[in-house]
Predict the 3D structure of the following.
Amino acid sequence: MFDFTIDGRIVSVKEGTTILEAARSAGLHIPTLCYLKNVSSIGSCRLCVVEVEGTAGLVSSCNTLVKPGMVVHTNSDAITAARRTALQLIIADHGLNTTQYCFSCPKNGSCELQDRCRELGVETTPFDVKPAGGPILDSNPFIAFNPALCIRCQRCVGACNNAAGNHTLITGRRGVRTSILAPFGEDWKSTNCESCGNCAGACPTGAITMKRRRQYRSWEIQRVRTTCPHCATGCQYNLVVKNGRIVDTEALDGPTNHGLLCVKGRSASFDFVHSPQRLTTPLIRSKITGELEPASWDEALDLVARRFGEIKARHGGSSIAAFACARSANEDIYMLQKMARTVFETNNVDNCARVCHGPSVAGLQRTLGSGAMTNPISDICENAQVILLVGSNPEEAHPVIGMQLRAAVARGTRLIVVDPRDIGLSKTADLHIKLKPGTNVAFANGIVRQLIHDDLIDHAFIESRTEGFADLKAMVEAYTPERVAQICAIDPRDLIAAARLYGRADRAAIVYCLGVTEHSSGTEGVMSLSNIAMVTGKYGRPGCGINPLRGQNNVQGACDMGASPGDLTGYQKIAAPGIVEKFEKAWGTQLPRFKGLYATDCFPKMIEGEVKGLFIFGEDPVRTDPDTHHVIKALKNLEFLVVDEL
């Protein structure tokens, strides 16, 4: 930390701070147009210029670092005149000698160029500049580019390259002019554009826009902050609402997405709300026609209560099961499992984490005591020196995490991809190990053995924070590089290189997904990866740890809330002394003591006639569970089936 003076005030800042950052931290306003935090700071617009005593001319504050003792002035007649001239040049090049286009521009009312013109009092320009122009490119189904409105601030290029790490948008030259080469013309499918729209989100004018913006203007809308419902990344955004309908989204600087969205979050994952296919009334299957027919809420709820009550009275609570929805909010999942236990009197309650990431919960609970990620996503992507990516394709399954991983690799993070597939990230990985599917445990054991033999383990951490190291060491001794290479169908030299790259790093993180968990040995695969981090002491520190990327948006929450046959809320075990009694006191009722059935165990019991009633909340086991015909046969054998679904 050191001091400098800005507008007569002494301000203390960290080394590496820009004048703009320092001014904002001190509550001082400096206008900007081409600057976007962590995206672009090329200083081309010249609106952020300031005076630095002892320096000739004005300097751009967005990319000039503060120095000890520096004296800065952010507001003077000369500064204002320079900013106005710069803005007049920009709007001349922007084609705004007349403002008639502003009225039809999709960004009218939320255009940063308009805002700066109002702020600096610029309404016309004395400069006669012929705008570069060019044809409007709008073949992309989501995004349009009007080069006539482009001010070449290059924020879109920064968003695509620096933030999203996609490197699709680039700059070109037309004579002395810089131009933006945007891939939204007829050949857009031949590019690597992901249609994420982060370029449109960064554009300060109406040059690059999402086509949805044509439906509204900023003064017609309200904003509602929420979490994207698509995958488990947890991106924060505003729903843009006009006349009671969601018309768009706006990315927010959330802890996991930092202003980024993918094509699903920005353009698709909310349209179901107003879908004409969405149910608007309960449906009861007619005994006469066999078809689902509309009914009132009273009819439907009375029927559900009566039929489940009859089944429980005749056969007991163990004859009823309930499946929770891992796409729903925590409160809804909590109520579903509470209803099953207090009303149906059954612990036969489960959710789809059992199908995908059940091994993560079980494996990490067994090794760490908590079945969840050990690190924030930003910590992995910003602090890890090495990332071991196993059985995961985040660019497709968790695109915003994929963007951040691409950006991390571009900044110098070393990447090891362990996956039989040629995924996008393998193109820039330091190592791509194409192991044979189903051999994750052998691979991880081989890594642990190599770490031990190279003495790349943390003896102090092992001694103070782990149990059973001697047994682990004896077990993995059989997993020589040659044996692992034979089991996994890989080169033994790659195994050794991966172990050394991971082990020698001070900060290394493990990231995995369904390629590890969806095996008969999924739980052991998770535990084996956890062992790699434990023997090297890479837990509890920035840039270290083990991190499952969950599938649906609230798989983690569904487990946390207790939608599991053996766990109550917060992973409190039904079998543990005093746990059931604690919940009975809180809920004011008696609870079943037996451990319930997993969803996969329920289907055979339905066929055998032991499970006779099922309440499905937001799940589709016919589509997602293995052996579709078996699931259908089981559901048809039920006495009563309720589907609570959109």
Remarks:
- The longest strand covers residues 236-242.
